[in-house]
Amino acid sequence: MFVSGSFGNQKVVAYSYSYSYSYSYSWDVEATSVSRFCLRLSQVVKAAVQHLFLCARTQNDRMKTRLKDVIANLYKPSLGRQAFALSRADAEQLPRLPTVAVISITAPERPPAAVEGFEHLLRLSFADVDFLNPDISARAKEKIPAAFTVAHADQIRSFIAQLPDSITSVAVHCEGGFSRSCAVVLALHKLHGYRVDLEKLEKANPSIVHVLMQSPTSKKKK
Question: Which residues pair with 195 in a beta bridge?
Fold first, then answer.
């Protein structure tokens, strides 16, 4: 709050409030009208809440569309093996097809995902941390002991190498479906030529990709 001048016998005070979530609001009101200020404030809060709700609903709609697209591709004839990155919630809704293998990645503090029913299933648990990033935050450093390791990479490599030719799709999920699972799918694409949607893998954890790329590679699936 600051005094900006006077108007007649009334002091004029400028108030400023800002909210930032892809956009911002700002305005000036007179200090002589606290109720007006409160009204404006409530209007901004209401608008912000509505914006957040709209963003959440849009994100939810996108996730539903993404799951539908993945399921549709599972039933299509496949020219070579394909891989998908999914969230835990989406992976739990996948049809238990004999042509699908699943790599289930969960956070150390979370329980196993409900993905039983797949004949070929690999469960892993590690934290989502970009541990090779030189600018890693202090908070992220605390997660390094639970981060992805060479042992995890070897488990993935062995799992993929032992899959029968009848497996046409590999679904990889983590908690949100954006970082760990995307990293594994991106590595499978680079190492084995799996068909993937690269646009959906932009947030792949680079440290996980690096470690997987350093692991011994098995013979590529044709």
Answer: 82
8 A C-beta contact, residue 152 and residue 177:
no
Q: Give 24: exposed, middle or buried? Use CB within 10 Å, 0-12, 13-18, 19+.
A: exposed
Q: What is the pLDDT of residues 140-159, one digit of tens each?
A: 999 999 999 999 999 999 99
Query: Per-domain residue ranges for the chain?
Result: 2-55, 78-214
First to last CA, the chain: 68
From CA 131, how far away is CA 197, in angstroms rounded? 25
Please tell me the CATH code under which domain 78-214 is placed. 3.90.190.10
Q: What does the block give as tokens for 159? A: 């799992």
pLDDT score, position 133: 96
